[in-house]
Write a structure and sequence with these properties.
alpha+beta, seven-stranded mixed beta sheet, 4 helices, Nucleoside Triphosphate Pyrophosphohydrolase
């Protein structure tokens, strides 16, 4: 039992004694809403091999990569979405980083689920990043103009792995592949389901 009482998870997930709190890493997740009589959300179970939230059902997403901030695209987040993002973030954070967080959510969703969340384009976008190359080869752009910013959550300071996560949302009409064509490209998310 940790000093925080009985908690779910492994003992190594919790800070002990006077250890300094770990600085959270920037991350993003994508909530995909499948429309219908009863809306459904895409969730996947994290592998038990993960050190952070093993065996938990989560939305697809992950850490912000530098390339997400540097990727040059012709489309942007809607101004009200960018405004809400800025309001929920420190002043020193650049617009490129905020846009990068939305892009990270799309990239991680593609890597973890195989779903191509995007809008068709005839414009070729070039990058040296393998994850983005695979995604862009499908003739799509990340659907930035269709994304909404929902929330921000920071892992509590007593955890040994911490993330500063921005939650974005899109509807399933921006899924370029079939919504039922779920696969786990990286093995990070198992048991993908529309719930």
């Amino acid at each position: 039992m940790s000093r925080y009482g009985t908690t779910p998870g492994r003992p190594e997930e919790y800070r002990q004694g006077n250890e300094r709190a770990v600085k959270p890493k920037d991350a993003a997740t994508l909530i995909i809403v499948r429309q219908g009589d009863e809306p459904r959300l895409l969730l996947g179970k994290r592998s038990m091999k993960h050190k952070f939230m093993p065996g938990k059902f989560v939305f697809p997403g992950g850490r912000l990569d530098l390339i997400d901030q540097r990727l040059k695209l012709p489309n942007e987040l809607a101004p009200p979405v960018m405004q809400r993002l800025r309001k929920q973030t420190q002043k020193k954070v650049t617009d490129a980083k905020l846009k990068g967080l939305a892009l990270a959510a799309v990239r991680e969703t593609f890597e973890e689920t195989g779903l191509i969340v995007g809008t068709p384009t005839a414009k070729a976008v070039r990058t040296s990043h393998i994850g983005w190359q695979d995604y862009l080869s499908h003739g799509v752009l990340p659907p930035l103009e269709s994304m909404d910013f929902i929330a921000r959550a920071i892992t509590p300071p007593y955890r040994t792995r911490r993330f500063d996560t921005r939650f974005f949302m899109v509807f399933d009409d921006v899924i370029h592949s079939h919504p039922s064509a779920l696969g786990s490209a990286t093995g990070e998310l198992l048991d993908l389901h529309w719930l």
